[in-house]
């Protein structure tokens, strides 16, 4: 629950505000860019939402914030309820962003994919009754894909609830020691006809990407969209091995995909050709440095 006494002075006057507990995870700026922006390494309300849609998005941000740093002085219970019910948000046929980001994963985004052979949870949101019910209604969870050690959050509780198989790379598996499926080595694993597990060591030794239908690439903290620069980004700090990081990104040129769905950073859809060009540009810029 946000604290008015800790309201940041960088917020404009009005109902919505961010307090000083913000961890600058970017979640609110992805969900409600008309309301929130980054100021001095925190988020702040730079434009108070007025119409119903903007207030709805501000409530989505309030609910997704991992540390409860967003407050609203005047409560709009109807829009808050609608925002709660909107999660998980379907991005496109059967692929969802879950919301309710967890502080345990530093506020990373998590996703859900429905599939006739069993649904997938990609990294973990907070364990909440609302999401449990929604996942149940969508057919439960068969697999929980863990992109790397930082983003496991409440995966163990979802696994227990749904009897799901947790997948993690052996180099990161101390974060989920009793995971049912440990991926070893650097080879791509064809987990099913439409799901591929791609080792992308670099940010951590055991980072994995998940490619679904050769269209959706779930990247953890390996690759994301930088909406200010309008280009792909990858870590330049918190890097386990910079050489491996570059090689892992180079490896992604072997695959075709349209979506990048990261833990941290923004998501993006581009044509496969534009995605390839963006990836090539990112590699060229890093190889120069
Ligand atoms: S979602 Fe919360 S913690 Fe993350 S940037 Fe916004 S206010 Fe800060
Ligand atoms: Fe990470």
Give an overview of the whole structure:
This protein is of the alpha+beta class. It folds into two domains: 4-84, Alpha-Beta Plaits (2-Layer Sandwich), CATH 3.30.70; 88-288, Metallo-beta-lactamase, Chain A (4-Layer Sandwich). It has helices at residues 27-31, 52-64, 77-85, 129-137, 155-162, 242-251, 272-288, and strands at residues 16-18, 36-39, 42-45, 70-72, 89-92, 95-97, 111-113, 120-122, 143-145, 165-169, 181-183, 189-192, 195-199, 208-212, 216-220, 224-226, 231-233, 259-262, 268-269. The strands form five sheets. The protein has a seven-stranded mixed β-sheet, with helices on one face. A six-stranded mixed β-sheet has the order 12-13-14-15-18-19, with no helix packed on it. Strands 1-4 form a two-stranded antiparallel ribbon. β5 and β6 form a beta hairpin. The longest helix has 17 residues, at 272-288. The termini are far apart. The mean pLDDT is 97. Iron/sulfur cluster binds next to α1.
Quaternary structure: single chain
Mind telling me the CATH class of the largest domain? Answer: Alpha Beta
Identify the CATH homologous superfamily of the largest domain. Ribonuclease Z/Hydroxyacylglutathione hydrolase-like
**Anisotropy-based shape:** globular
Compact overview of the structure:
This protein is α+β, with helices and mostly antiparallel strands and 289 residues long.
């Amino acid at each position: 629950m946000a604290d008015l006494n800790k309201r940041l002075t960088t917020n404009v006057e009005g109902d919505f505000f961010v307090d000083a507990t913000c961890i600058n995870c970017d979640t609110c700026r992805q969900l409600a860019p008309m309301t929130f922006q980054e100021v001095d390494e925190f988020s702040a309300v730079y434009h108070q939402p007025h119409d119903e849609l903007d207030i709805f998005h501000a409530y989505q941000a309030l609910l997704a914030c991992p540390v409860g740093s967003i407050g609203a002085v005047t409560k709009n219970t109807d829009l808050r309820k609608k925002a709660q019910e909107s999660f998980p948000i379907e991005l496109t046929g059967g692929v969802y962003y879950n919301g309710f980001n967890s502080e345990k994963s530093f506020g990373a985004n998590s996703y859900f994919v429905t599939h006739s052979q069993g649904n997938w949870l990609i990294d973990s949101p907070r364990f909440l009754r609302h999401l449990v019910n929604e996942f149940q209604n969508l057919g439960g969870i068969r697999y929980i894909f863990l992109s790397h050690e930082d983003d496991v959050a409440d995966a163990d509780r979802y696994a227990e609830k749904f009897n799901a198989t947790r997948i993690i790379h052996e180099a990161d598996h101390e974060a989920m020691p009793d995971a049912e499926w440990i991926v070893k080595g650097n080879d791509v694993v064809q987990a099913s006809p439409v799901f591929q597990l791609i080792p992308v060591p670099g940010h951590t030794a055991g980072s994995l990407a998940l490619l679904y239908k050769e269209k959706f690439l779930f990247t953890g903290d390996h690759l994301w969209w930088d909406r200010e620069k309008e280009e792909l980004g990858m870590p330049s700090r918190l890097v386990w091995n910079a050489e491996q990081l570059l090689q892992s990104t180079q490896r992604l040129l072997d695959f075709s995909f349209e979506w990048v769905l990261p833990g941290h950073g923004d998501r993006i859809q581009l044509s496969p050709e534009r995605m390839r060009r963006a990836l090539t540009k990112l590699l060229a810029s890093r190889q120069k440095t």
